[in-house]
Amino acid sequence: MVKVMQVIPAIDLRGGSCVRLRQGDYNQETVFGDDPAAMAAHWEVEGAARIHLVDLDGAKEGRPVNVEAVRAILGRVAVPCQLGGGVRDEATIAAWLDAGLERVIVGTRALKDPAWFRAMTRTFPGRLVLGLDARDGRIATEGWLDVSSVAATTLAEQFDDLPLAGVVYTDIARDGMLEGPNLAATEALAVRLKTPVIASGGVGSLGDVERLAALPIAACIVGRALYEGRFRLSEARERAGELGATP
Prior knowledge:
Layout: E1 6-14, E2 17-22, E3 25-33, H1 36-45, E4 51-55, H2 56-61, H3 67-76, E5 81-84, H4 90-99, E6 103-106, H5 108-112, H6 114-123, E7 128-135, E8 138-141, E9 146-151, H7 152-158, E10 166-171, H8 183-192, E11 197-200, H9 206-213, E12 219-222, H10 224-227, H11 233-239
Parallel strand pairs: 1-4, 1-12, 4-5, 5-6, 6-7, 7-10, 10-11, 11-12
Antiparallel strand pairs: 1-2, 2-3, 7-8, 8-9
Helix pairs in contact: 1-3
């Protein structure tokens, strides 16, 4: 059986625009477009099998903010979309899923209220993704503004028995920097979990995609490298073994 890793383009939303941050710093923002729905349609045409959305304002404020932009995206594309940022209660999860999202990513509340998160995974089986955003191996929350004392691997293992759709692991220091992903940390997490791992942060070249594809992970999220034209999505999908694979 051929190993296939899905390549997922990211659309980070702030103020209704498509942006990218460096290392999660809200003061280091680059705007790549003011029509996120058109951007999503572009990635769909380029062959994306899934699109990763982040409500950056929502992550900071703890509630959904870029709602209209997300709804416009969902109304424009047919490919499944997943979203993280500002998902802190059951009503928000239900509302996003009802709006048409395939999966919802929960980070901050999972760390702060594990019992609640466990209950939510059973209420919405196969529809939730655990968001692990780490700085120096420790979980960061509140839109990456606060760093906890909890190790990413510890939190992930705590939830590995749940009906999760996956775990998104982001090394904040690598995010938006195009200097390569944290392969060692990503692999260490993947080999300890039964839950599928999705890598995020730092992909800057096709070589990075190849190196990630060699790990036991399900997918990788790519943002700035695609927006800056370092490579095309089709090229990344080919390196990941995604092109020509049987669904």
